[in-house]
Design brief:
101 residues; 5 helices; mainly alpha
Length: 101
């Protein structure tokens, strides 16, 4: 077996970068905020989406999402996206309130 005496090069973003990268410690508050948002109710727990009963609501949920996207994209109204977001926010609130009743 023939082996090369040269050492293999490995990529290292911190040393191969043309501009220096600021250490993460200087952004501790920003990083903490990002992780907090990721753990919030809307993004944190997707485990319940793996429940077998979720199939009952996936089809209408995707239909709603497709309708919302089409409405926003195909409209010439510059405020359409805001209106759609507000409708979706109210729908999400109504659904959340079902569990409180």
């Amino acid at each position: 077996m023939v082996s090369s005496p040269r050492k293999k090069k490995t990529a290292n973003a911190s040393t191969n970068s043309p501009t220096p990268v600021a250490p993460a410690s200087g952004n501790a508050d920003r990083i903490k905020e990002i992780w907090q948002r990721a753990q919030d109710d809307e993004w944190g727990n997707w485990g319940d989406a793996m429940h077998p009963d979720v199939l009952e609501v996936l089809k209408p949920a995707f239909r709603l999402m497709r309708t919302a996207v089409r409405s926003s994209v195909l409209s010439s109204d510059p405020d359409r996206a805001d209106k759609v977001r507000e409708i979706l926010r109210r729908a999400a609130d109504d659904i959340k309130n079902l569990t409180r009743a």
